Amino acid sequence: MPKLTLTTLIFALLQGCAAENVYNAAQGARLNECTKIADNAQRARCYDSATQSYESYGQGQQPKLKD
């Protein structure tokens, strides 16, 4: 049983690393799309969104708790 638990833990950690790597790799494509926006204000918002860290992105994806 402990071997299965260790394997599951390692798999879970690797999944997290893989997701962050995919996110970081896609940042270049997002930044490239921002360069195509003519409006300065929209382009600035696009850059802000495209340069958001993975940690910030993850925090924004957390479900909101209702009071």
Structure description:
This protein is mostly helical and 67 residues long. It has helices at residues 2-34, 40-50, 54-60. The longest helix has 33 residues, at 2-34. The model has no long low-confidence stretch (mean pLDDT 77). It is 76% helix and 0% strand. The protein has a domain at 19-50. The protein is built from 3 helices and no strands. The protein is elongated and about 55 Å long.
Question: In a few lines, what is going on in this structure?
Answer:
With 67 residues, this protein is mainly α. It is built from three helices and no strands.
As a whole number of angstroms, the C-alpha radius of gyration is 17 Å
Gross morphology: elongated
Could you tell me the mean pLDDT?
77
Task: Note poorly predicted spans.
Answer: none
Please give the share of residues in helix: over 70%
Please count the beta strands (DSSP E, at least 2 residues each).
Answer: 0
Helix/strand-derived class?
mainly alpha
Q: What is the H/E string? A: HHH
What fraction of the residues are assigned to beta strands by DSSP? Answer: under 5%
Major β-sheet profile: none
Question: Helix segment count?
Answer: 3
How far the N terminus sits from the C terminus, by CA atoms, comes to 40 Å
